[in-house]
Amino acid sequence: MRLSRYFLPVSKEAPADAAIVSHKLMLRTGMVRQNGAGIYTWLPLGLRVLKKIEQIVRDEMNRAGAVELLMPTLQQADLWRESGRYDDYGKEMLRIQDRHDRDMLYGPTNEELITDVFRSYVKSYKQLPLNLYHQQWKFRDEVRPRFGVMRGREFLMKDAYSFDLTEDDARVSYRKMFCAYLNAFSRMGLTAVPMRADTGPIGGDLSHEFIILADTGESAVFCDKALLDMDPPGLGLDFDADLTAEVEKRTQYYAATDEMHDEAAFAAIPEDRQVSARGIEVGHIFNFGTKYSKPMNAVVQGPDGQMVPVQMGSYGIGVSRLVGGIIEASHDDNGIVWPEGVAPFHVGLINMRVGDEGCDEACGDLYDQLEAAGIETLYDETDDRAGAKFARMDLIGLPWQLVIGPKGLEKGIVEVKNRKTGEKVELPFADVVAKVTPA
Ligand code: ATP
Ligand code: MG
Fold first, then answer.
1. Which ligand is the nearest neighbour of the Cα of 89?
2. Best exposed site among 215, 251, 282, 300 by fewest CB in 10 Å?
């Protein structure tokens, strides 16, 4: 992408009401534009990151055997009356009437809708297990939308729903999601810690929130440092294998948000491993048995011919929240430092002397080579001052910066800077593409 033809409205200052660093940086880099409380336009740079996250989530859901579909944002209230949640949900639900005075709502979540899809088609245990997911905008009329996209009112969520015949099978499905989440967050450059979460009135122990540590997180969290040092299960994981050990390897260690915190259990961890910090909830997985299938009559025929309500679980990821969360976890004084997996472009190419025939040609050549190699490149061929170009490139935080100027050109070299480490090396033109190609 040539910067002069792109739309990248960066600014020096962030509005005073942006309270946390990710929100400030998202506004300054022109990633989002606020249109109302908790409602945002995703500008081109922000949208690229959002799509990267969405694709990682999709890959890892698919790898774990989940199947993508797309449900609508607008739902009929009648479905929610069946589950009893239409009245229970309260003011967070945006309620709308259509021209025929039918009650509609903008979905805050999709348990009812997916249960309706399921019961319309699946009648036999032979069609199980099944896990259906989508990535769709949600609306929750939060009391206090804040921190930019981290607590929006309209936000993008990945929500998956599992269907199984028995409770044991439902646990198998749960473990798949547990592992897939760790892999997905790791690909985004994040260490997400699964923490025991409240299951509310349904009870049981099958709910985990996935939390990333950040000073600006909304929840106080407590965990064993061992969890922060652990590698994810890995993309080679066999999802058809028994994943119990993989899950227990992590759940054996203490980890809880303040609602579930147990002082005594925490105190029992060796002192040098006690982590007391703040965290951002980026995902939440939940097994709720027959909570929806019973009232909504989503039943399947079991092997003995009996009709039984299907066992369900739901699995959310805050896709748009993650954009802010990743920035909270990865920035410095000069701006964002994108992890490679989610960077809006992989490389920023800076032409130091636009209009100089040699520089223009060398940059143009390199740009073509990078594009041909499938490396997403933002080419700064504007006539801004060099200092402004460097500052802007640092601010938007692409993993690699390539600088071409008249002096280097004489020697046949390009300056290659790694945004994260700050390391700069001078390389001959022929070696540049290989250097920045992801491993
Ligand atoms: P929170 O406790 O942060 O309000 P929640 O528990 O109500 O979230 P879930 O229903 O578990 O949220 O939704 C799944 C995921 O969607 C959450 O883990 C979070 O990452 C994301 N999410 C929830 N509410 C918002 C919001 N207002 N803005 C952005 N993302 C959100
Ligand atoms: Mg939650």
1. 1
2. 215
